[in-house]
Amino acid sequence: MFAADLKSDTLKAMVNIISTLIDEVKFTVKPDGMTLKAVDAAHVAMIEMNINEKAFESYSAEDTELGLDLEKVKGVLKLAGSGEVIRMEQDDSTGKLVFKVGNITRRMSLIDTAGMNDPKVPQLSLAATIEVPIEELQKGIRAVESISDHITLKAGPEFFELSCEGDTDSVSLRLDKSAATIDTSSDVCSMFPPDYLANIIKAIPAGTKVNIELDNDYPVKLVFALAGGAMEVSYLLAPRIESE
Amino acid sequence: MFAADLKSDTLKAMVNIISTLIDEVKFTVKPDGMTLKAVDAAHVAMIEMNINEKAFESYSAEDTELGLDLEKVKGVLKLAGSGEVIRMEQDDSTGKLVFKVGNITRRMSLIDTAGMNDPKVPQLSLAATIEVPIEELQKGIRAVESISDHITLKAGPEFFELSCEGDTDSVSLRLDKSAATIDTSSDVCSMFPPDYLANIIKAIPAGTKVNIELDNDYPVKLVFALAGGAMEVSYLLAPRIESE
Amino acid sequence: MFAADLKSDTLKAMVNIISTLIDEVKFTVKPDGMTLKAVDAAHVAMIEMNINEKAFESYSAEDTELGLDLEKVKGVLKLAGSGEVIRMEQDDSTGKLVFKVGNITRRMSLIDTAGMNDPKVPQLSLAATIEVPIEELQKGIRAVESISDHITLKAGPEFFELSCEGDTDSVSLRLDKSAATIDTSSDVCSMFPPDYLANIIKAIPAGTKVNIELDNDYPVKLVFALAGGAMEVSYLLAPRIESE
Description:
homotrimer; 244 residues; alpha+beta; DNA Polymerase III, Chain A, domain 2; 5-stranded antiparallel sheet
């Protein structure tokens, strides 16, 4: 049994963020909320999402799994205006998920979740933590797109920097403590593939504060909350380590 | 002789609606207004348009025919802002139609209407009549586009439904008497090709009320008025009848 | 030594106008401003630009040359909002030009200006001078795009006309003395290639008054000021002379 009402903006943020990695996903549904763990086909990045029932306008569920094709859900989102509530309800007789938006009813077949195992999320303890408004990161990503080489993330006790170095040109976004909350005792630096970082940063909604956890030649972890704190997202991206 | 002033929005609605079926058209011009009858190349749909002289800001004409290439008229519409008045005047010496928009003069050669015969419009008496705001139909069309199979229109004494059934998924717009004026004593149902229905519904301007006349495995007729009632449009679409 | 602050809108107008002709350009920098002379690869059109130091928010320079790839500068412009100030500063150690927009720093390698000679700008004395708001010319250009043959510019003591004649259709923008300031004692007329004229007219920002200097089968000269008069632009376009 699963029935819930959700603001279209919340569902849209969820779908946009997950679909930077993968289109067919399994949600693990419990009486007090839903969780998702997903990894992309190349095993470069991983998302963990915990959605408390408070993220929903109404929520009522037993333990179950929902296998969703996110491209189809994007089709439903096109039918809902900003702020509109989308009803989702599993039809017990057919097993299909039924979306209702205003006078429209969309019956969607689910994906078989039998072969879909949750990836194991590594526990990392990273040296630096930086909190930044997503708008700053989005400016930085737009800036490095003109060069489109690997992106370097650096932090020290007094700064955070997102930069990209080409053969002749370079570009960087540098934030001091007036624009970011920075917590590290030493300098740290890792390099990342540009597309993954660009896609996740563009998918995070305006107004979000993102916690960046960083270390030397280690994965970066982006942690942020949506839906007024009721949805927690953790995104882990493997570093690109230069061979010498 | 033909000379008229017309709001760009009215000309735009006319052109958008007719060009869902055909690009080269003949208008029959009379002293009190213009009429058009047009059928698409595949003979699946038909438009009848009656434009009273009151639809124009000014109108002065003798009996004549105007053969127009609607793609060229769309070019003229790009030069006019919303609410701007477009002057149309036939040049008696060259026979060309002269459009004036602000300081711009566009002289357009007409199409020879000699071989263009008006199609015969069938007289139909259909069991159900439903009046719906075009916005509801446009939402329904956006919803069924994710499935893009034949569209079913259904009505009963208490409901009107636009729906589409795929192999595994389905979608429907269902309106009760609070959202539509429904007049039928029995249930009726016909199926239609999706592109035709989508194109005409998208071409009808916001704020229009559309009268849908429907029966069992029969053509559907969409009747609506534009230009404050001075322009009447009737659109007839053949059903898709499933062979068994 | 070169360091200057410039409003993004001013830099954008400069780049848009010059890049209708050429992408790699040389600016001649002096203590009181910058100049540019550029011709397109086909030698059909020429731009001369004089930028007084008053066009900048701040300006400090010694005699030097800056070789810029305008496509890269367009990338910088995407990072700045309207009204935002862009800092440009040459790094004396590397020779690179450093752009700063908010927290973003973009280091750009310059183009070698050794082989880039300034074209010789011909001195012309043309019979007619017409001053027109750029918006009128932009409407005229949109209108002639449906025909896309050579564009004819004509002027007489009482009118200015931009027109285009196709095989069967024609279009014209005609301005009288209420819409343009016209100064000519005789009728003049020249024909021009449509793309060049369309591109420069579209690149000139709204609100600009353009001085058109015209004669019979002679180049046309468009002269206009930007940045409150601190930047003067002169654009010269060769005529298309019909062989008989």
